[in-house]
Structure prediction request, 222 residues.
Amino acid sequence: MIASPEVVAVHVGTIAPLGPKAVPSGYRKHAVAGPVHAGEFGLAGDAQADLTVHGGADKAVYGYPLSRYPDWAAAFPDLSGIFAPGAMGENLVVADVDETGIHIGDRIRSGSALLQITQPRQPCFKLALALGEPRLARTMVRRGWCGWYYRVLEPGVITAGDAHTVVERPNPDWSIARFAEVIAAQAMGAELLAELLAIEGLAPNWQAKALRRLADLRRAGP
Prediction:
């Protein structure tokens, strides 16, 4: 029997000092035992310090695969004890699926909320601050161990133990793993850029980047 994806933990966090320079951050989160309301800009009780790069409707909720933590522990055995749910600053810990099985634009029913996958995570310096290892961000990008962001299409309540069910998949060729690989390669030709523009549900900032790069290529000519 194949297991169905499930939200095994829900995390929220307030803004608190992070690292030796006490950088304000909402990275540190704690598990919530009961139901949590998911609204347009995220989960109730969750906060982001730098809204220029975190939060917003297209990064309202951050999901991370439970199965990825053993990979991190194997890659960084000296830090294996810290790789557990919540370590990546995620809101939802999802079992029985990873970046290869989640696609841009997926509409997902979890509890009474309807979510949509918008983009992979691109790690900033706070990942290293939180876990004390400067190589983590580069590893996340290189290996595609990035998790994914959701927008909230229909507000509702999510509780640990709820299903994580894909109800619509408009872009079966665009898994989070593939999109993360494209980002890491930093090589986008005109054909690929045009394809990005047509991906339903993709975060608008990525479509804007694709449009600018496509315009640059066309101005440069053959």
Q: What stands out?
A: The longest strand covers residues 113-120.
